[in-house]
Every structure is written in structure tokens, then in C-alpha cells.
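Section 3.1: Structural characterization of target chains.
Under the original work plan, the team committed to producing a structural model for every single-chain target entering the pipeline before any wet-lab resources were allocated. The record below documents one such target. The sequence was received from the expression subgroup and is listed exactly as submitted; it comprises 329 residues.
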Amino acid sequence: MKIDSPPFDRPLQLDDIRAAGERLAPWIHRTPVMTSKTLDERTGGSIFLKSENFQKVGAFKIRGAMNAMLQLGDAEKARGVVTHSSGNHGQALAQAGQWLGVPVTVVMPRTAPAIKRAATEGYGATVVPCEPTLEARESNVNRLIAEQGLTLIHPFDNWQVIAGQGTAAWELLDQAGPLDLVICPVGGGGLLAGTALTVKGRSPSTRVIGAEPKAADDAQRSLASGSIEPSHDPKTIADGLRTSLGEKPFSIIKENVDSIVTATEPEILEAMRFVWERFKMIIEPSCAVPVAPVYNRQLPVKGLRVGIIITGGNVDLEPLFAELAAKWL
């Protein structure tokens, strides 16, 4: 069964995100907002990075997962929950389940980063591997629901998850002050939907822009056509953004997002390296996607105050350190 309780017989509202923030306050970090003189000078704007790489489980996903988990009924908690995830939502749901004593099963593509699978299992979840396609994810989830009576907490196509994700933008507005533009990555659309609803609700004149890999440009195509244009196992280093848009997020995105821009694979890597070097922060490739169009000046921000949501820092460093060890030890 899929949870959308309390019943949403109305559109998601700003008050739902405000309530989610209050609900989550005892459980999550209020992450810092970081700035860089070098980035400001390069772009001509004032850039504020909302650094969810410092969030619990290393990503913003704990916001949505925990908000949904806290609203389960006792019977649903006893039976357990299931989701599909390439990593960060699975980790977040596993951590939430550990905190609340709820069994968690995560269907995870076999191509997911090893560090994310290990962390998910480390938080006590059962990981069920599958092929790296949406069809494989969904068929395995449906099988587990039928066999075990688990409750689905979808990684993005869920109103409570969207409301929880929107709390990152709420904090950003509180911390950075008035913004002309807010940018965040878009994969399934939960974060972008929550961000757009928050920003447009609190500051209607602020533009909201989504960013995605050029190799996985389904959100840009969907916004242009007005209907969901699915992505089929795209090849991009930004593993967290390979998923197609969900119906619930898209219903918010198409009404509240001003535009969606893309970044090439070289641009993603260049922006990721810049953040590592200048901000001294480890971020995932998916987080570099919204930085790239600002960094390379594809998106003009001169004279603007710009917020960028940095979504996570769960990078598999084993290959890097293995190479260093082979060279120096």
C-alpha cells in the first residue's frame, strides 16, 4: 500500500511544508549555508550553497523519508516499509526505520554505488538488488508489497516526502535572506517540487530553476511538452538523477518552476572539482549539476542573489584511495 496520509484531497500547500519543518526539527540538522568569494567574483552574483551534504545520512533525503515515516500508523510500522532507491533515499529510510523501530526493505539497482548500499545495510535495512531500470525497481517493490504487506514510501512520488524535501528551501530562505533565484537538481522531482512550492509560497518573485544532466534531460523535455517524458536508463555520472519524474512532483513543477537547465558530463565534473577545491566540501556528482550552469556562466546571475541546494556528499572514495595506496604505499 502507498501512504499519502493524512489524506490529500487537496493540493499540497505551504502549511504542509511548515508543519513538516516543525515535525522534523528534533531529528535532523539545520545545515549550513556556504559562500565563496571566488565563485561570486567569477559569476558576478552572490551565491549561497545550502549544504545538505552535512545532513544526517549525508543527504537531504532524510527530510522526506523521516517526514513520511513519522506519519505512519502503528499497524504500518509493525509490518514494515519498502522503497526503491539508487542510494540516498534508501539510506534515509533505513536510518528513519532504525530510529523508529520500523523494518525497512530497499530495492536497489545493482549498479548503485557500493558505499550507498553498504550504508543502507549498515542502518539495518534489507537490500534487494535489481536491474537498473524503473520497470525492475517497480516490479520488485510490487512483489514485496504483495508477499509481505509492506507499505511503500516512494522516493519522490509521495506528498509527505515532497513536503519534507521542501524544508531545505525553507531553511535556505531563512538563512540567506531574500533571493532572486533558487536552483536545485531534479531527478524524480521531489526536491524540486518541494523547493518550488516553498519558494513561490514565501517569495513569489523569486525564480525557481531545476538542473539535470544533459544525458538525462527528461524534466526539461517534460516541462516543455506539458506531460511526463520518461527517461530510459540514461548514462550519466550523476547517479541520483537518472530517475524519471513522478506524477505528483510534476503536478507542482509544471505550475511553479520557471525553467530547467542542463549540464554536460564534463561540466558536471568541472563544477564538482571546483566545489571540492574551493569550498573544501565533498559533494556527489548530482550536487554539482545545479552548480555547473552558474559556474560556467550558462545561467547569467550577475547582480543576483542565488541559492543552490547541494543535495548530498555520499561519494565512494575507495577507488581514489586505492589508487593513492598503490602509488605511495
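The beta strands are 33-34, 46-51, 81-84, 104-109, 126-130, 151-152, 181-185, 207-213, 259-263, 305-310.
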